[in-house]
């Protein structure tokens, strides 16, 4: 829950003027993406779950690749607002 609140607040502060309430939603979603691997923990033993959860999705490689992917996607989807790609990429990187 704290990831969502922090992401929504950060999203509103950083991109609220350009995107309105969508910035809060995007921030909340982006903050929770690395922890989606926690669902796999339902089927894994506790030691394997800890390694898997703190593995790939909490790595710098994941953050950089997903930040660029989500930033480019967001900028393309909101091209009518004419927000630069780098703003979206920076926003996604910070949230992740």
Residue windows where pLDDT falls under 50 for at least 5 positions:
none
Give the total of beta strands: 0
Query: Fraction of residues in helices?
Result: 55-70%
**Major sheet characteristics:** none
Order of helices and strands: HHHHH
Please give the count of helices: 5
Shape: elongated
**How does the helix and strand content classify structurally?**
mainly alpha
> Over the alpha carbons, how many angstroms does the gyration radius reach?
15 Å
Provide the residue-averaged pLDDT.
84
| Spatial separation of the terminal alpha carbons | 15 Å
Multimeric status of the protein: single chain
Strand content: under 5%
Features:
single chain; 96 residues; mainly alpha; 0% strand
Provide a descriptive summary of the structure in words:
With 96 residues, the chain is mostly helical. It is built from five helices and no strands. The chain is elongated. It starts with a helix and ends with a helix. The mean pLDDT is 84.
In short:
The protein has 96 residues and is an all-alpha fold. It is built from 5 helices and no strands. The two termini are 15 Å apart.
List the helices and strands and how they pair.
Elements (H helix, E strand, L loop, with lengths): L1 H18 L2 H11 L13 H8 L6 H18 L7 H11 L1
């Amino acid at each position: 829950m704290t990831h969502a609140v922090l992401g929504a607040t950060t999203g509103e502060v950083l991109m609220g003027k350009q995107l309105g309430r969508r910035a809060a939603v995007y921030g909340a979603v982006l903050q929770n993406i690395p922890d989606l691997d926690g669902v796999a923990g339902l089927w894994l033993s506790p030691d394997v779950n800890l390694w898997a959860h703190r593995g790939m999705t909490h790595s710098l490689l994941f953050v950089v690749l997903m930040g660029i992917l989500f930033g480019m996607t967001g900028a393309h989807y909101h091209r009518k607002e004419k927000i630069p790609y780098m703003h979206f990429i920076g926003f996604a990187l910070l949230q992740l």
